[in-house]
Design goal:
Shape: elongated
Helix content: 25-40%
Number of domains: 2
Largest sheet: 7 strands, mixed
Number of strands: 22
């Protein structure tokens, strides 16, 4: 055999073995797309794709774009009600596409398969001043294999008269105006087909000029949605609602400017609990708890530390006398419940039993402050309205997210509702009397935080009970421990109402710093019991011219 023949045989073998390796794993024998055009603007689409698998594969996937740039503007379609006849499938969004994955990961198939894919589309029309334009990319241009034959049928809902100038179809490579396709209109439908094999990267697109009002034109909101989608609407809603709450707060909730000046005594017209509310506009647990040292100083109760039982400390509250009838309702709610069964109560006995009383007292505390002519009545009404609107926004947000699947808008409404609740807390606007009381409270808080020892010493000389009177106020400010420490070397005895297991708080030298630590620890333990709730079981919880590849629809696919 000559050298030349050897080379011919050698390269023939290479050619023979190379081409099977590069052969496609599947071919598309026929691609038929039928579109039902509803006057409402909804498209009902059926794609019948006849495939032949040259090797074992699980199935095909179909990518359908839902975001487009059309004539310089962005559009977002709604693609829904996806079905695949007789095959397992799953659909999801990836980038700008809806991806339909057909087949089962554990089942392999080969040979001829016919896939019938059905879905609905809304928003696939371009509304011009004098007509409505419909463009549909019948096959898509992003298939990796050739489409041996392709056809389409577009069926219109209602009477329609079109001339040959009102529609045309292109087939060929994406971006070209090749006319390798035919179409004809008869009896409210347009049917057509490609006149050539559509190679990879080629497709077929239909353009139709419809009468202006043949399709119901969308409103302003729907046009916005079509151009910008749910995410943009969600952003707009969140910004608008947040701005709305801010404007309400600016007009009805923002307080007048205040003058900051140190005050050496607590506000005369406010109890410690009320001072705790006015300083931060919230009725907190510590505001209610401050009633204990407040009552104790005024001779209504004693606070007694008990011996540790099973490694846990406990406290006993002892009633010395009844509260006066004119005491605020929130005080009676706590006091009467504490001593409902006798004059002594162990704090541990209230575990999981007292949380509802605390809630009632905090509500009453807010109401009591509002009745003191501190706030403008209209601001209280707007506070209620803001709270209701915020709750509705959160409820609607949950509904949209978990029932209708509109996650972005649902989250936006929920977040806006959360912002609304924040503004709700600060919506009540203080009148001139309220500003005065706030300035006095803030001024005393400033002193408690930064007081110098010589000034405290002078205050004690004027009033030996100064520490006991001010301790509940320091407590609501969050400064009970550091405030007690400032009295080191100035106090010789502890408060008589805070006693140890043996009847006395201490034996020997008294340290206000140690007392402050002990008192703060005791109050935290009592607060923990007061707010404890029974544990619950179970769980809960709550998808005229154009080019090939233009128009809506299109996309492509592959096998897997």
């Amino acid at each position: 055999m000559s050298v030349s023949k050897i080379f011919i045989v050698f390269f023939s073998l290479i050619f023979f073995f190379a081409f099977p390796l590069s052969a496609s794993d599947f071919n598309i024998k026929h691609y038929q797309t039928n579109v039902e055009v509803k006057a409402s603007g909804i498209l009902e689409i059926t794609e019948t794709i006849e495939v032949f698998f040259n090797e074992q594969r699980r199935g095909i996937f179909r990518k359908i774009p839902y975001r487009y740039m059309m004539k310089g503007e962005e559009y977002a379609l709604k693609i829904y009600d996806i079905e695949v006849e007789n095959y397992h499938f799953q659909s999801d969004k990836s980038g700008n596409d809806v991806v339909i994955k057909i087949g089962h990961k554990d089942i392999f198939i080969e040979g001829k398969q016919t896939y019938i894919i059905k879905y609905k589309v809304k928003g696939a029309f371009l509304f011009e001043d004098n007509f409505t334009e419909f463009q549909w990319n019948v096959t898509g241009t992003n298939w990796p294999v050739a489409i041996e034959s392709a056809g389409f049928g577009v069926y219109f809902d209602g009477n329609l008269n079109l001339t040959k100038d009102d529609y045309f179809v292109n087939a060929g490579r994406a971006g070209t105006s090749d006319a390798f396709a035919t179409a004809k209109f008869l009896q409210n439908k347009i049917i057509g087909n490609a006149e050539k094999v559509l190679e990879p990267g080629e497709g077929m697109t239909l353009y139709v000029k419809l009468p202006k009002d043949y399709i119901v034109r969308p409103g302003a909101l729907e046009i916005w949605m079509q151009k910008y989608g749910w995410l943009s609407l969600a952003s707009l809603l969140f910004i608008s609602l947040t701005g709305f709450f801010y404007q309400l707060w600016t007009k009805y909730g923002k307080d007048y400017p205040i003058i900051r000046a140190v005050q050496y005594i607590p506000p005369k017209d406010l109890t410690p609990s009320e001072a705790g509310v006015i300083i931060d506009e919230r009725a907190d647990n510590v505001d209610v708890l401050a009633l204990l040292p407040y009552w104790a100083h005024n001779g209504y109760i004693l606070i007694k530390m008990m011996d540790k039982s099973r490694g846990k400390s406990d406290h006993q509250l002892i009633k010395v006398k009844d509260l006066p009838k004119e005491a605020p309702t929130y005080e009676h709610i706590i006091f009467d419940q504490l001593f409902s069964t006798g004059n002594e109560v162990l704090i541990s006995s209230l575990e999981n039993e007292f949380y509802e009383t605390m809630t009632s007292a905090k509500t009453s505390l807010k109401q009591s402050l509002q009745s003191k002519d501190i706030y403008y009545p209209i601001s209280i009404r707007y506070q209620l309205m803001t709270g209701v609107v915020s709750a509705i926004l959160i409820a609607v947000g949950i509904l949209l997210s978990f029932v209708f699947g509109i996650l972005s808008v649902g989250i936006a409404l929920g977040l806006a509702g959360g912002v609304g609740f924040i503004f709700t807390n600060y919506m009540v606007k203080k009148n001139h009397n309220g500003v005065r009381l706030y300035q006095e409270t803030l001024g005393f808080k400033m002193f408690v935080k930064a007081a110098e020892k010589d000034k405290i010493e002078r205050m004690l000389k004027d009033d030996p009970m100064y520490f006991e009177k001010t301790l509940p106020y320091a407590m609501v400010f969050g400064y009970a421990k550091p405030w007690s420490k400032k009295f080191e070397g100035l106090l010789l005895e502890p408060p008589s109402w805070y006693v140890g297991p043996g009847g006395m708080y201490y034996a020997g030298h008294f340290s206000p710093s140690e007392f402050g630590s002990s008192f703060d620890s005791s109050m935290n333990e009592i607060k923990s019991v007061f707010n404890s709730t029974p544990s619950s079981s179970g769980g809960g919880g709550f998808s005229g011219g154009g080019s090939v590849g233009g128009g809506f629809g299109g996309g492509g696919g592959g096998s897997w």
